[in-house]
């Protein structure tokens, strides 16, 4: 299953986007909403796929080979439980991989965090926080990495930072109406 930005659902990979987001289950998609919104906010082309490293290993290998060949710049992998998907992505591509540990299991995402962050030397995964907060930061981190070679995107990253910085509220009265 593949979801492409700018259209509904499609298996047709005619134009490969800049970022490929891969998650282990359809049940992960809701948590990744913030990631998609952040990427959209920066104007980064992306597509999302549901391909489990454990349930569909051959499909994952084929997809990464296709995406690599088509010019995807960066992968974002997200999974819960024994979350090996980001690590397997990093084993299959030389492009940067950002890993999002998801918090669906009985261990609250600590299981996924350990699985994503504890990669062996030589197979790096840039791991963000567990769950929805990490999903948003995966989008922001992707933007910062891609901005190194994209001045227009770098400008949008700076605009975001400036907007965020302007949101400080010194000496508020929390008793007043919000
Ligand atoms: N998962 C799927 N294949 C391997 C793993 N680790 C993860 C999914 C999801 C969780 O298992 O990423 O977070 C539960 O998946 P499901 O499909 O049973 O809801």
Percent of sequence in beta strands: 5-15%
CATH class: Alpha Beta
The ordered string of helix (H) and strand (E) elements is EEHEHEHEHEHH
Poorly predicted sequence stretches spanning 5 or more consecutive residues: 5-13
Spell out the key features of this protein.
Rossmann fold, alpha/beta, binds 5-aminoimidazole ribonucleotide, globular, 6 helices, 178 residues, 6-stranded mixed sheet
Structure characterization notes:
- It is built from six helices and six strands.
- By secondary structure, it is of the alpha/beta class.
- The protein has one domain: Rossmann fold, CATH 3.40.50.1970.
- A six-stranded mixed β-sheet has the order 1-3-2-4-5-6, with helices on both faces.
- Strand 4, helix 3 and strand 5 form a beta-alpha-beta unit.
- Helix 1 runs parallel beside helix 5 and helix 5 crosses helix 6.
- The longest helix is centred in the last third of the chain and has 17 residues.
- It is globular, with a radius of gyration of 17 Å.
- It starts with a strand and ends in a 13-residue tail after the last helix.
- The structure holds 5-aminoimidazole ribonucleotide.
- The site of 5-aminoimidazole ribonucleotide has 16 residues, from loops.
């Amino acid at each position: 299953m593949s979801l492409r930005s700018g259209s509904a659902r499609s298996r047709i990979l005619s134009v490969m986007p800049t970022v490929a987001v891969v998650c282990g289950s359809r049940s992960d998609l809701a948590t990744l909403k913030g990631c998609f919104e952040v990427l959209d906010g920066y104007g980064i082309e992306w597509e999302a796929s549901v391909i489990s490293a454990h349930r569909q290993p051959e499909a994952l290998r084929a997809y990464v080979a296709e995406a690599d060949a088509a010019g995807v710049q960066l992968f974002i992998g997200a999974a819960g439980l024994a979350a090996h998907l980001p690590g397997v992505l990093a084993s299959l591509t030389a492009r940067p991989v950002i890993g999002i540990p998801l918090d669906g299991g009985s261990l609250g995402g600590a299981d996924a965090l350990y699985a994503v962050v504890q990669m062996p030397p030589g197979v790096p995964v840039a791991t963000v926080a567990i769950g929805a907060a990490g999903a948003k930061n995966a989008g922001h981190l992707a933007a910062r990495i891609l901005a190194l070679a994209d001045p227009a995107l770098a400008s949008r990253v700076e605009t975001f930072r400036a907007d965020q910085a302007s949101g400080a509220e010194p000496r508020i009265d929390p008793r007043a109406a919000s």
